[in-house]
Amino acid sequence: LRRPPPTPPYISKNLTKIPNNPPANPPPPILTFCPRLCPPPPLRSGKNRAILVPQTVKQPVPPPEERAVKGGPFVGTLLASCAIAFSTYSRLPMPQVAWSEKNMRYTLAFFPLVGAAVGLVFWGADALCGLLGAGTILRAALRTAAPIIVTGGIHLDGYCDTVDALASHAPREKKLAILKDSSAGAFAVIWCGVWFLLTFALMSELESVPTLAAGFVLSRTLSAQAVEQLPSARPVSGPGAGMGSALKAGSRLPRWVLPAWLCLYCAALPWLNRAAGLAALVCAVGFWLVYKRMAVRQFGGFTGDLAGWFLQVCELVMLAAVVAAERMCALWC
User: Fold this and answer.
1) Which runs of E-coded beta strand occur in the chain?
2) What pLDDT does 245 receive?
3) Cα–Cα dist 148/118, whole Å
4) In this structure, which of 45, 86, 216, 282 has its CB flanked by the most CB atoms within 10 Å?
């Protein structure tokens, strides 16, 4: 006579041996085996048999904004900084990343790249108007609106706040308080209308669209360079800290990055209108020097609103320089 097969062993969660005779209320098994396909190898210990199954601990899944970017530590930090730059200064869709000090190290290095994206959209909108045979007024309106649509008007908001602060002629502390105020004053509305009027009029006279499209890279390169060189007008941390001061505090930008963007703009001049591109470069650098002196004297340093004001006025100055250079070349050449 053959002995009946032993009762299948139970598997314990804490890896303890359980005899073949089950208890009255046995715990539910965690893992079951098919004896015909894959019989588990029992571990004999006297009359009892038990199966030791190592338990795997599931790691918690981090939220999407805290997940690491693939590609290694340095490449991941670069991609995270690029995503922060585009998600902050444009409305282009980007993956969500954590706004940590590590991820914000190289954000300013990608600020000119945001300008390149704005310039491509600006150039594409003008090319679309040319294909559709749009008139001068419609083309000028789309040229004016395209950069604001891409950036979401974040720099124009800083322009309006800075105009209110400069028009107050108040002490430095009062001007900084006006910059933090979200409401728009009368001077902000007036000078915003003046900016749109001048931009629309000059856009209707513009002929060298690629030259101005490259100017969006130049203006953001100079703006990032000013952030690196100027002191912060607000505290770096605490309740009074702003987005610009936090960006400057976490920046670990190498010194050669922004001059490299400037050299790239100069290298592209042979493929653009040389006279117009050179005039835009000279006027932008001259206004950049004026902006640095004004920011230190009036506010004690830079803020995010001042950077937006510089960007809007610098692009208007470059637009006027390009149009003037085109007219002078048409008269003398």
Assistant:
1) 43-45, 48-50
2) 60
3) 9
4) 216
